[in-house]
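User: My instructor asked us to take a sequence, write out its structure as tokens, and then describe one feature of it. I'm not sure where to start. Here is the sequence I was given:
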Amino acid sequence: MVRSNKSKNHKDPRMEPTKRLRANMRERRRVSQMNEMFDILISLLPPSEFRLRLSRAQALREAAKYINQLVEHLETSDGSDDITKFPHIFLEERQSKTLNYRTPVNSSSVTAFMHFTAFMLLHLCYTICQF
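Assistant: Let's start with the prediction itself. The structure tokens for your sequence are:
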């Protein structure tokens, strides 16, 4: 029986650096995408008592808490107290944010915006957990 030069477990030393570079690039891209998703998630949350940037775990906890607040509000409210319960949605400073998710809304479209925000938070949480 003649054995070939290349066995299944043999690694070609010339290919290893190229594969490593590609793997590193994929990992950098994945981490960058995760950071972007967390930035969007954090931008959708109301202001919190945290002084520093939220950790990923804190962001997910805050998002879950906020989703529950939005769902409860949408199920029990007639919409007349939206501005007092969720004032951060109406802040003018939202105009200065570069993310489209931070645009200000008027009171007539708050319910739609709250549904959109809850959906985006759920979608981002699901996407992040799938990574």
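For the description part of your assignment, you could build on this observation: Residues 16-130 form one domain. Try explaining in your own words what that tells you about the chain.
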